[in-house]
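Hi P.,

Sorry for the delay on this. The queue was packed all week, but I finally got your sequence through. Input first:
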Amino acid sequence: MIRNNISMTVKTLKAMKDNPSKDTIDFNSPIQRKSGMWDAKRKSLLIHSILQSGIYSVPTVYFRKDMIGNKQYQYSVIDGIQRITTVFDFIDNRFPLEKVPPVILDGASYEVSGRYFSDLEQDCQQEIIRFKMRIEAFEPEAGDSEEYVNNTIEEVFSRLNSAVPLTSAQLCKAKAGTSVAVLLNKLLTSKFFTESASFTKAQMKTSDDQRCLLQAMMLLDTNYVPGFELKDFSETSIMEYSESIKGNYSNKQQDILVSSTQYLADAFPEKNKLIRKISVPMLMYLADSAMDMGIRPQFFREWWNYFTEEDPMYDDYKLFCSSGSTKLPMIKGRLAVMAKSLCAYHEVDIPEEMKDMVAEVDEKLAAMKAENSLADEAAGNDEPATTDVTENVVALEAEPVNPADEEQITGETTDNVACPDEALEQPVHSVEGEEASEVTTDEDAAENDEAAAYVDESSEAAAYADEASETAAYVDEASTAQEDTEPA
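Then the structure:
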């Protein structure tokens, strides 16, 4: 088997497909995924990268090269089918470009967003047609058996697609910009995130700590950024938020975030197994409120221990920790119950900015419990039912929910369903085009003990399931040279 580095223009490759009078291109390799797997944004980024190839790198594609006649070859795509077919489809006017930055060619600026290939100026069209794809071609030698060739090709494909994948949370760091990334790294290596909070090994691998920190930032901004409106904690919202704060995260916002994190580190000098990812954003928000109310870290810790071990309100809190917990009604529910408990414990008034939310949640809880009580009476149950309460939380919220957030996660792997926040609900998604993969939690004895201790919280196991279904929409932002990889 011989490997050769060659280059072909898009025009040459297109001719091989449309008019195979000599060399041909074959997209039917059995180990390749079918074409058409990319969404519009990913396709648009590829075309923009080609138009700005002096800045962005378009990864190499891989062919198998076979002689099929006298000086006539067939090139079978091993890796890169999404990139090649995307370019062909764009030239054939099968899709317009989504919103992308203007293209700069020879000092001239061209707006290309929303345009089909035929709408582009001639300079842009020629830039695409003349673009040279980097190609590595594997050509069988005389004496190579078909079995050997196929096995080698399969191994090449496997190695190309075996790199460590990125999660959407990791991609958010790049979207937020260098200054915010430095801040995130500083806080994620602080005592609270590394010693106080309880993240599983699997959650750390998928950067769930970073996801929680970004969610806390969003929650805090509802207080300090005029006009900021929290939609939910979905992957879509986190990504949009990360993009919005690039170069736009003020010193005041940074100071508030750092102070809240340090306050929690002081409040919890040792690991607290009940500080899990579903509660971290709320605790960071309440830490800021507690400082305003003059509550010392020690007494904040005392409240948290009471809340999680003795407070009847904890049962209300758990109603907002079921599947769908990334939706706004569930976020408000958790925060309102925690705030109400904190203020009742310390005998202080609920902060003015939270009064309406607490009243709204109280009203919902009363309605939910009344409905459940009526259902019990109708069924003739002696014991109050709790199984149907959480199903009604989101239904009682008048605000519309993005249908994309309703998708259910598939192939979910959990550390232990009895321990809600320990669920590995976030499959690790590949860098542009790689097959999505999952990481199975390495459970240790402590985690098993904790799971057994909190069997009553099993309804939380599906928490954050909504996040996973959206992650794949954003893997287009990474730029590694895997199959179907597209530079951001």
